[in-house]
């Protein structure tokens, strides 16, 4: 990949997010229904014509769900913030398509505003505050100082507005316990390797500060009240559609890229068979691949 495609914005965590576009879009497709339910739940409490800030919007999966939820209740503004131009372009295109659809009764107006920004150095409040809802999904854990990042998000919330932070949950599963090749229990060893990689990624992030405690504590300490949380499932049981198998192949590939060196050589051999389209064990053709994961959303109101 050419050097210029690495945006400065995501270099803190060492991940080239533009190269992850296909995988992000795949995941968004599979998470679509769950995202719509979450978006409706979050916008229900908002005043008319609110501003919603999608921080670290990625490929736009939740952006689209938020646009649809606002359309259904008369309109508003969705501000998309991301540091990778390729992702922001895709998210903006998808959000604009979703904003212009007509309901049976009327044409609702949702305004879309994209903002290219590096969240480690730029304050969300300066970019697009104050918003009645700030949504940030799996973005804070990539920033050097997570507590400072939460404070920055809270600054962007209008008084009486809400911050919804999607972080944590349960590690996704997609492999049966015994694949018929290699030692059973590969999924758990992949998860352990990924957890080790994550700790290493945080340690190697320049200026990284540890944040002890849970996300609810961080929200309360940042001055939010009525702090609660809910979790939602993404559940595509086996036998799953091809899109799930394709996602699983990409996911396993990504596990290898980031944490392959932390796996036992025997597991690495198993994985290379699972990723080989010419092998009888190829993951993309297995009927027993599935997707089951739980995401947690922490919510708090600004007094």
UniProtKB/TrEMBL annotation:
It comes from the Bacteria. GO terms for molecular function: methyltransferase activity. InterPro entries: SAM-dependent_MTases_sf (IPR029063). GO terms for biological process: methylation. Gene3D superfamilies: Vaccinia Virus protein VP39 (3.40.50.150). Keywords: Methyltransferase, Transferase. This is Class I SAM-dependent methyltransferase.
